[in-house]
Every structure is written in structure tokens, then in C-alpha cells.
Amino acid sequence: MTHYFIEASYLLASLLFIYGLRCMTHPESARRGMKAAELGMLMAIIGTLMHKDIISYEWIIAGLILGGTIGGVISYWVPMTALPQRAALSLAFGALAATLVGIAEYHSHGAEFSRFKMTVIGFEVLLGSLTTTGSLIAAGKLQDLLPGTPLTFKGQKMVNSGLLIMMGLLFLHLIFHPDAAWAMALMVVLAWAFGVMLVLPIGAADMPVVMALLNSYAGLAASATGFAISNNVLIIAGTLDGFSGFILSVAMCKAMNRSMSNVLFGAFGSASESAATGEAGHMREVGIEDVATQMAYARQVVFVPGYGMATAQAQHVVRELSDVLEERGVNVKFAIHPVAGRMPGHMNVLLAEANVPYSQLYELEQINSDFPNTDVSVVIGANDVVNPDARDNPQSPIAGMPILEVDRSKSVIVLKRGKGKGFSGIENPLFFKPNTGMLYGDAKDTLSKLVHAVKDA
Amino acid sequence: MNADTLIPALYIFCLAAFLGYLVLSRVPPLLHTPLMSATNAISGISLVGSMITAGAQYSTTSTVLGFVAVTCATINVVGGFWITERTLKFFKRKDAAEPQKKE
Fold first, then answer.
1. Which of 27-86 (A) contact B at CB < 8 A?
2. Is A445 inside a domain boundary?
3. Residue A275 belongs to some domain of the structure
4. How far is the C-alpha of A53 from the C-alpha of A55, rounded, in Å?
5. Interface list for B 1-40 with A (CB within 8 A)
6. Which among B5, B33, B97 has CB closest to A345?
7. Residue A65 covered by a domain
8. pLDDT one-digit tens code per residue, A337-352
9. Are both A298 and A407 inside the same structural domain?
10. One domain for residues A145 and A242
11. pTM (2 decimals)?
12. Which of A95, A409, B11, B76 is the most buried (most CB within 10 A)?
């Protein structure tokens, strides 16, 4: 009887999860969907507590309380700008949980595993371990504990291929000799090393893809856990997670016109130095008052935020400026590139937090045709996503990457910290165009000055 | 796990993958960040496996591993859902956002 109750709770949980994700297609329904998914999770937990294999509850309850406290504290305190780090950490936790369940299962009955079961556990432990360390490295890069630039060394590809081959051989050995515990231990250690090696050479600007990809691995590891312990809800939820990560990484790669292998093994930035042509022209610096007047009498102003807006914590001031402009009857829009920021959808959340209604947030395809009708485009801490070279210069390292075509608007204002080339080190001819004006300094500072100047205009 | 249980499991995997593709490719870029934390919370369902490992008393080692796994998975479930709700709350329609503007 309990068996049926447990299976019914799992089935209900699966349905509620799918319904919850289905609701994510629109902000209005999404919150309702999350409530449903939470209910599903609760059902699954209650069902599991009745499982016949569970003899003692103290460790389960201790884990639930400890995990709940840590999870609650993190999510209560984390600022929206630090969301990418939080996401990376949680991927590491999820992958670690899957790995540990796999190892525990192996430790308890590993010697009598069938080949099927060994294969599944092997996948679970491999994917889980490399995702754990990979996500930790990603979190370290996002939190600036590790350098954001790609870390590469000679023979890196050889080392990585070597690791991969050794892991493969150990895995094969385990399938035929499931009692070889040393092979399992060694495989875990190698997978940890591989996870580190996989993410170290990836630059911070490529983080959206890596995050999505690690998300996909973590989901697949959970799904493999489901195969290992014959639990359908785990297979379903893990696969949904894995696929969501996969769809996101494909979308991110498309938004950068790069293949997955190029992101993973290409180590951006290093290739760009040779290709950067010396097109160093004159950058025209403009004054706050001029810009304010231009904006105040414009019909349409489009803001283009990038990661620089997040680091300067400027999203609230941008909203203020947009309010002041709207009061004057200016049409204000926000153009958001899919890879702006450090994780998929990062800029949308930051602006939404600053109370910008989502009807004002435009995607690349929606806004590009609108730039010729725009009087002033304001680029805030974004660089590559507005680089016209991606469209015009086939030699450019980012050639073919879809960009926000701000250079087609009547006037462009670029807010930039300094005169340097910016994060990726790629020259941006937008800065030298005659209709581009540069405003140097801290974005938050500059924007609040603009708010006052527009009020006075 | 043997061939008899593997095949239905593969069916479920393939159907879930297909369903995931249909449902998730319709999520707009606007909501990609909450989507990531939501799927992350949902994959915290590995809690189910961790709980059995922690409570089954196969051996001390597996109980300890299970306990750590329960902790990690719970962090994701609680943290993932909470963050998702926090971020989703920010997304407002035009008329809903207006009255809350201050400063």
C-alpha cells in the first residue's frame, strides 16, 4: 500500500514540475508555476519518508535542517548582482549530492553490481564530480577569487585529452570488474581534476555558456542517479534540468556565433590579439550637459546595459534617468543582448529589480529594426555586444556574432570606465564613429549627474 | 538494474527530454535567470535518493555520505525555489511598476 502511495506522490511531483516549468513562459504565470513545483517537491519528500528502506530518521532530519538553513540564509542575503556566483555554487551542491549518492551506492553494494548498473553509476559519478569542481571554479571566477581571464598553458589540450582517456579506461575497467574500488576512487579524483581543467581556460565573458553547460551536466548527473536507484521522478526532473541547460547553452552559443567546442577549448581573448587591427582613431569625449540636452529633446532613447552596469551597481540610477525622460515624453526602451552579463538573463533580472517594467525590456531581434528610429542610444558598460566589427569585418575574432546595432541610431553615447579596450581586448570601432560620444568615469556617478542635468534641461 | 528495468527507464528519459525541449524552448530570454534557479531547485529532487541513502543504514560510510548529500540537495531545493520567487517578484507590468516608483 505504501508503495503505491510513494509512487503516486512521485507521479504527482513529476506532473507539477512539468506544469511549473510550462508556466515559466510568462512572468505573470511563472510565480503560480513555482508554487506548483514547490508543492510537487513537498509531495516527493513526504512520499520518500515512507520508503521501506529508511530505518532511521535522525540523519535525514539533521541534513534537511542544516541544508534548509544554509540555503535559506544564502538566498535571503545574496544581492541580485551576485546571482551568477550563487547559481554556480548551487550547481556544485547539486552535482556533489548526485556524486555522493552514487559513491554511497557503490560502497554498499558495488561488488555485486550488474554491468548496466555499473555503467549508470559510473556516468553519475563522472558527470557529478567534474561538474562539482567545474562549478566551484566558475563560482570563484565570478566572485573574483580567481582571475577572470582565461588561464592557459602549453600542452593544455594534451593534458585534458590524457585525463579524458584515462577516465574512459578506468570506467571500462569498472564495468567489467565492478569490485575494483581503487578504479572508482581514481576515476573520481581524475574527474575532479578534469572539471578544474575544463573551466580554468574559459574567460569570464564566456561564463553564460559555461553556466548553462554545467547546469546541463548537473541535471544529467541527477538523471543518472534516477537510473541507478530506479526512481522515475529523479529521471524526469534530472532530464528536464539537463535539457534546460542544454537549450540555454545552445541559445548562448548562437548569440555569440560560436560553436560549443570553440567556447570550451578555444580560450577566447588569446586569439584576438593578432586579429585586432590598429584602427585606433579619435574618440570624441562629450560633456554631461550636451548629452542631457540631446536626451531631453529626443523622441526615443534606448539604453544598452552590459556587465559594466552590474559592477557599477548602476541599475537603479538608470531607472531614475528613464523615469525623468519619460516624464518629458521621451520614449524609453532597454535593449538586452542574450549574452550580456555573466549568466543567461542576468540583465533582465537586474533591471526588473530596479523596477523597470518588463514591457520596456527588448530582445535583440525586437529592437534592432528600431535603432534607425532612435535618437540617442546609451551604452552602459557593454562592449562586444555593440561592436559593429562583428557585422562588418570578417577578420574580427567575433565576426558573425549578432550585435545590437546601436551604430544605426542617430547618436550613440558610450559610458565607459576608461579608454582601454575593455574586457575581451578587442578593438571596438563604434567608439571612433563620428556619431559616437564618450562619457568616461564610473557609470553610476555619470548617470546620476545626467539625471540632474536632464531635470534642469 | 537489468534490461527489464533499464528499458522503461530509457523510455522515461527520452520522453522527458522531448517534453523538456518542447516546454523549455518556449521560455523567453527575459526569464532565463529564474529558469536556471527553478530547474536547479527541481533537480534538487536528488534529495529523494539522498534521503534513502542517509536513512537506510547500509553502513556508516554511506550514512555519512547520505547526510552530506541530503544537506547539499536541501540547500538547492530551499535556495533554488526561494531565489526564483525573489527574482520573479521583480518582473512587473507597466501599470504595476508605476505606483511603486519612489525617490
1. 27-28, 30-31, 34, 37-38, 41, 44-45, 48-49, 51, 53-57, 59-60, 62-64, 66-68, 70-72, 74-76, 78, 80, 83, 86
2. yes
3. no
4. 6
5. 1-3, 5-6, 9, 12-13, 16-17, 19-21, 23-40
6. B33
7. yes
8. 988 888 889 999 999 9
9. yes
10. yes
11. 0.88
12. A95
C-beta of residue A195 within 8 angstroms of C-beta of residue A134: yes
Three-class SS of residue A383?
Answer: coil
**A68 and A111 inside one domain:** no
**Residue finishing a domain among A270, A296, A321:** A270
User: Which of A208, A237, A270 is the endpoint of a domain?
Assistant: A270
**Are A355 and A383 members of one domain?**
yes
**CA–CA gap between residue A401 and residue A394 (Å, rounded):** 10
Domains of chain B by residue range:
3-89
Q: Could you give the 3-state DSSP secondary structure of residue A409?
A: coil
Using a CB–CB cutoff of 8 Å, tell me whether B100 touches chain A.
yes
Q: How far apart are CA B103 and CA B100, in angstroms?
A: 10
Residues 6+ apart with CB under 8 A from A61: none
Residue B77: count of CB within 10 angstroms of its CB: 29
pLDDT of residue B96: 63
ipTM, 2 decimals? 0.92
Range(s) of the domain holding residue A213: 89-270
